[in-house]
Automatic annotation (TrEMBL):
Keywords: Hydrolase, Magnesium, Manganese, Metal-binding. Its cofactor is Mg(2+); Mn(2+). Mg(2+) binds at N7, E34, D147, N149, D250, H251. The keyword Hydrolase applies. This is Exodeoxyribonuclease III. The record marks H251 as: Interaction with DNA substrate. Residues 4-251 form the Endonuclease/exonuclease/phosphatase domain. PROSITE patterns: AP_NUCLEASE_F1_3 (PS00728), AP_NUCLEASE_F1_4 (PS51435). Transmembrane segments: none annotated. Belongs to the DNA repair enzymes AP/ExoA family. Pfam families: Exo_endo_phos.
DNA sequence: ATGGTTGTAGCACAA
């Protein structure tokens, strides 16, 4: 089984590329983040023709996550137990389901904006709640996949000195990520040590062309998931502005292969 | 520090 995660930065503006990506890489399950769509807005006709089912959640134009699967979508969960809201407003940042016998959570961790912004505290609170909830599932084959908006190590950032007053590299964010890694393993890092390790490139300043990116999209596997992983890669072709018509997402998909 | 580029319910704001 082949599983992928991709912050698509609007599924409506890139539905053709989603379909092409699924076909090009022979994907069984795709977790999407930043769909920027409510479920009714997600065009599924061609996906249905190709045999994929879609589960999605979205309340407004900013967030939204989805799962696309051709190996079934069962036991769908919108949000995880204890998932915090921001200012009392529910946000579409987590969707779980069982696909092909494996629990997959599509996660869009809050960005945090700036260290002194309320969204930063919300991000830490959100990750702590995910730690608590996910520890309940780690005995089953489960993957926590998505855009984590955290660089766990300096080597995951093209230039840490540029992030002194920014989010993503702060110790509290890293500690929150590492707490979850106590139960789950990064199953991609061993297969993608570098230099093709970055999953996000800012649209500005030709960051992709200069390979100046961040590794912030992760597949964390429970022990019984991780032991089945046979390979992984970052699909940098999908992020390459020169490869396809139209603007790419600012994130590249991450692909993981699982033994049966 | 600033700027640069995408996306959306856009002519402001989030990333």
């Amino acid at each position: 089984m082949r599983i992928a995660t991709w912050n698509v930065n609007s599924v409506r503006s890139r539905i053709d590329r989603v379909e092409a990506f699924l076909e090009r890489n022979d994907i069984d399950v795709l977790a999407l983040q930043e769909t920027k769509a409510v479920p009714d807005q997600i065009p599924t006709m061609n996906l249905e023709i190709a045999g994929y089912e879609v589960a999605a959640v979205g309340y407004d134009q900013w967030n939204g996550v989805a799962l696309v699967s051709r190996v079934g979508i069962e036991d769908i969960k919108v949000g995880f137990p204890g998932m915090p809201e921001f200012n009392g407003k529910a946000e579409a940042r987590a969707l779980g389901a069982v696909c092909g016998g494996v629990g997959i959570w599509s996660l869009y961790v809050p960005n945090g904006r700036k260290p002194d912004d309320p969204h930063y505290a919300y991000k830490l609170e959100w990750l702590a709640a995910l730690k608590a909830a996910s520890s309940e599932w780690h005995g089953t084959p489960t993957a926590l996949v998505g855009d984590w908006n955290v660089c766990p190590f300096d080597e995951d950032c093209f230039d840490p000195s540029q992030f002194k007053n920014s989010t993503h590299l702060t110790q509290p964010e890293r500690d929150a990520f590492f707490a979850i890694e106590a139960d789950y393993r990064d199953v991609v890092r061993p297969h993608v040590p570098g230099p093709e390790k970055y999953t996000y490139f800012d649209y500005y300043r030709q960051r992709f062309e200069r390979n100046r990116g961040l590794r912030i999209d992760f597949v964390l596997g429970s022990p019984t998931f991780a032991e089945r992983v046979t390979g992984a890669f970052v699909d940098l072709e999908e992020r390459d502005p020169a490869k396809f018509a139209g603007a790419p997402s600012d994130h590249a998909p991450v692909v993981v292969d699982l033994a049966d």
